[in-house]
Amino acid sequence: MHAFLFRRVYPSFTLDVMALEISVAAPVALYVLGWDALATEILYLSLLLATMSQIPKRFIWRYRPFMVHRANQRKRTTTSSFPSRAVACATVYAYILANIIGYASDGSFSLRWWHFVLIAALFIAISFARVNLGVHYPTDCIGGILLGVVVILTGLGIRAADVATCGDCIGGGCYSSPGNPDSEIFASSLNKINFLRFGIVIGLSVIVGVAFIVPPIQFWTKFIRVYGVLLPSLLFRLTFLCPVSTASGAAIAAPINRPWYAWLFAALISATAMTVAAITPAKKAILSFCLFYSILFCVLSAWRLFIL
């Protein structure tokens, strides 16, 4: 029994817990709940993690141990062995978990000594599981943690740039000015939106979608499942939570009350988005991406404008 749990359940469990899809679904759920600072932090880290982990997977090939009969096949996967995306996810998720704890305790994101202990513990646990499954070499896992550290450091830089250009949601810098209705974006005053930025973000999203989906790049078969969920959240952030970009400093108001059913809706919209994106046919990927992108952005925007 102990051998079964150790050799079968533990590696599979760690694989599911460290799946990239977890961080992909998180930002939209957190924006629904009104935890905008945390949602933005995870959004940029998820975009970086997805993109930076796929680049070597797409353009650098290394056979997995079971492919060359150096391990028993216990997990079916056909992608490149290097680097270990699961270990990269574990590294970034440890940092995200530490940020969640810090955000809940004192409302700030700052590195603490135990962050490194948590990252090291997850690195050892996930690396052992991946090697035990026969899908990675130890050097793949080392590459994974190095990639995760690069993602975190790059994310710190992007967050600093985002705060400078949009405002920090910690302390209310990304919301409308309290007591000044002229600075608040309502459903009836969408003309306050920075439509130039709005159009640029949509245009870049479509260009990235076309470039990544069609030959010769064909960057990722999971493009819609990953970017189709993350990019609408990015558009929401830059449209409604970026008063610095508008002439009147307009943004939506900070959430005051969080109804109990917000938790249900957050779970529903994130689960539905991931499920629909996963079953979207690849033959009409560009059209599906555009429809999915538009619908998810509209649903998220309507929720924040009318409900929260």
Structure keywords:
mainly alpha; about 300 residues; about 0% strand
Task: Tell me what you see in this structure.
It is a single chain. This protein has helices spanning 2-17, 20-33, 36-59, 85-106, 113-132, 138-166, 195-213, 223-240, 261-279, 285-306. By secondary structure, it is an all-alpha fold. The termini are far apart. Residues 1-6 have low confidence and may be disordered.
Coarse structural class: mainly alpha
Q: What can be said about the biggest beta sheet?
A: none
Gyration radius over CA: 20 Å
General shape: globular
Distance between the termini: 49 Å
Helix and strand sequence: HHHHHHHHHH
Total strands: 0
Give the overall average pLDDT. Answer: 82
Number of helices: 10
Helix content: 55-70%
Instruction: Name the poorly predicted regions.
Output: 1-6
Share of residues in strands: under 5%
Q: How do you describe this structure in short?
A:
The protein is an all-alpha fold and 308 residues long. Helix content is 66%, strand content 0%.
What topology does this entry show?
Layout: H1 2-17, H2 20-33, H3 36-59, H4 85-106, H5 113-132, H6 138-166, H7 195-213, H8 223-240, H9 261-279, H10 285-306
Helix pairs in contact: 1-5, 2-3, 2-8, 2-9, 3-4, 3-6, 3-8, 4-5, 4-6, 5-6, 7-8, 7-10, 8-9, 8-10
